[in-house]
Amino acid sequence: MTNWRTYTIQNKELNSMSSNSEWVMFYLDGYVNFNGETTDFIYCKNQSPFNSWDVGYQIEIDNDRTKVRGRTQDIDSTTIVRLSSNSLSLARDNNMLNEMRRTVERDKNMYLEFIEENGVKPDGTVYRMQGWRYGRK
């Protein structure tokens, strides 16, 4: 039986006790039950896919599995914690944006700029558009 609940990552912290960080700590917007204790954070192994998750991402946690674990026990399996389907496109967009940034750094004839437009449609609807423009100079 699974009891998945969605949380938003509020903050991300790497193990600061060594240069070779073994875990990633995620602060959440809700509480998780660990073997009789509740916390608003989880520890995950500093490995894929956990180390690529960031603030604002939504994750799902199986609370049936966490309630039999200690709160300081590193989570190393996506059968316990996984990226929410709502965040999959965000993760892909961030990966694509990072690749565009690397391309611009390598090729000075390329550009990347943030664009934003606010306005009012003829029917009175207010809109706001944001995005990235990428191309050759």
Quick overview:
By secondary structure, the protein is an alpha+beta fold. Helix content is 19%, strand content 45%. It folds into two domains: 4-84, OB fold (Dihydrolipoamide Acetyltransferase, E2P) (Beta Barrel); 88-136, no CATH class.
Count of the separate structural domains = 2
Instruction: Tell me the radius of gyration.
Output: 19 Å
Which ranges are low-confidence, i.e. pLDDT below 50, for 5 or more consecutive residues? none
Strand content: over 45%
- The CATH architecture of the largest domain would be Beta Barrel
Provide the helix percentage: 10-25%
Q: Give the beta-strand count.
A: 7
* Bulk shape: extended
Structural class: alpha+beta
Q: Tell me the major beta sheet.
A: 5 strands, antiparallel
Care to describe what's here?
This protein is 19% helix and 45% strand. Strand 2 and strand 3 form a beta hairpin. The mean pLDDT is 81. A five-stranded antiparallel beta sheet has the order 3-2-1-4-5. The termini are far apart. The protein contains two helices and seven strands; from the N terminus they run ββββαβαββ. It has 137 residues and is α+β, with helices and mostly antiparallel strands. It has two domains: 81 residues, Beta Barrel (OB fold (Dihydrolipoamide Acetyltransferase, E2P)); 49 residues, no CATH class.
